Amino acid sequence: MRPLDNSGAAEQLASGLQMKDNRPPGASQQPAAAEVAETPGPGRTGFIGPKSQRIFLLLRGVLGSIAMILLYYAFQATSLADATVITFSCPVFTSIFACIFLKEKYSPWDALFTAFTITGVILIVRPPFLFGSSAVEMEEDYSVHLKGTFAALAHAVFAAVTLVILRKMGKSVDYMLSIWYYVVAGLIECVTVLFALGEWSLPYCGLDRLFLILIGLCGLGGQVFLTKAIQIEKAGLVALMKTMDVVFAFIFQVIFFNNIPSWWTVGGSLCVVASSTGAAIPYKSDLYPHILHD
Fold first, then answer.
1. Which sign does the torsion angle of CA 257, 258, 262, 263 carry?
2. What distance in Å separates the CA atoms of residue 197 and residue 243, rounded to the nearest whole number?
3. How far is residue 273 from each of residues 40, 68, 82, 111, 236, measured CA to CA in Å?
4. Contacts of 99 (CB under 8 A, 6+ apart)
5. Domain for residue 81, yes or no?
6. What is the model's pLDDT at position 120?
7. Treating both helix axes as pointing N-terminal to C-terminal, what angle do 108-125 and 90-101 enclose, rounded to 10 degrees?
């Protein structure tokens, strides 16, 4: 009777094992792998984001808002074309910061493009100690123009740092969460600065109020598309595509303000656009394999 008992025990043991694990092989590992690969969205992390990414989200919001404030000041202090062109030295700063913080390659060509950008900015600023006082022909006071130039240049630096931060976070953070930090930080910064300067007031004209609403909506839409683009593509290439703003800036300045840019501005614009285009050339070799693998 022992053989029968051993056989029955063996059958019961096998049956018990099947009852405990009746899933196909490898099925028990799939949920764990899915949990690891799944990107945490705002529904899982709330409005503060993943713990490991909160410092980057905060920096993205604060620095991005400062960059936008500097850009608006530059538009007020100098011409639309000059401010826009100077801000598009951003790809050069992006390449430098990406090399420092993301360990991306910085070649001698990038150094050459940096020199092109500096040349373009000098042609736009036209400092009197280089061009002489007679070469500085502009309607606004030169000191105000200089302040607007430095504000536009500072915007390019802060925007480049913001692009690198977004690239650092990648797809680990939902892009709408990044926009949320940008909006909240911008609101706090603007309200603080307005109260500090005593400039808190609403425009009296209804058309100006409409323009403010349009600025907010268009600016938010631009940030949404920019954030989504930087998550799925390299920082330098995204910064390159933004140089199309230079073309629109010249067109809008002529159409809406009847302000014809000077030849100095045109020459400086060509230098800056050329450097921005060249800064993105190394990324083109990586573009097609990236698309094929995706």
1. positive
2. 33
3. 38, 21, 13, 15, 13
4. 105, 106, 110
5. yes
6. 86
7. 140
Give how many domains the chain has, as a whole number.
1
Q: Which domain holds residue 241?
A: 53-286
Over residues 122-176, the pLDDT tens digits come to: 888 777 666 666 555 554 577 788 888 899 999 999 999 998 998 888 878 887 8
Residue 8 is assigned to a structural domain of this protein? no
H or E element that contains 28: none
Please, what is the angle between helix 108-125 and helix 80-87, to 10°?
A: 160
Under 8 Å between Cβ of 124 and 86: yes
d(CA 36, CA 40): 10
User: Quick one: DSSP state of residue 9?
Assistant: H
Name the residue with tokens 């899915």: 34
Compute CA distances 223 → 74, 216, 228, 286, whole Å.
19, 11, 8, 25
pLDDT top residue among 45 and 250:
250
Tell me the one-letter amino acid at 190: C
- Residue partners of 195: CB distance under 8 A and separation at least 6: none
pLDDT score recorded for residue 55 = 93
C-alpha 156: how far from its chain's center? 11
- Picking from 113, 105, 111, the residue whose alpha carbon sits closest to that of residue 88 is 113
Is residue 37 situated within a structural domain?
no
Q: How confident is the model at residue 12 (pLDDT cuts 50, 70, 90)?
A: very low
Written as one letter, the residue type at 179 is: I
Nearest to 91 by CA among 271, 252, 228, 266: 271
59-63, 165-169, 248-252: which range is least confident on average?
Answer: 248-252
- On whether residue 105 sits in a domain, the answer given is yes
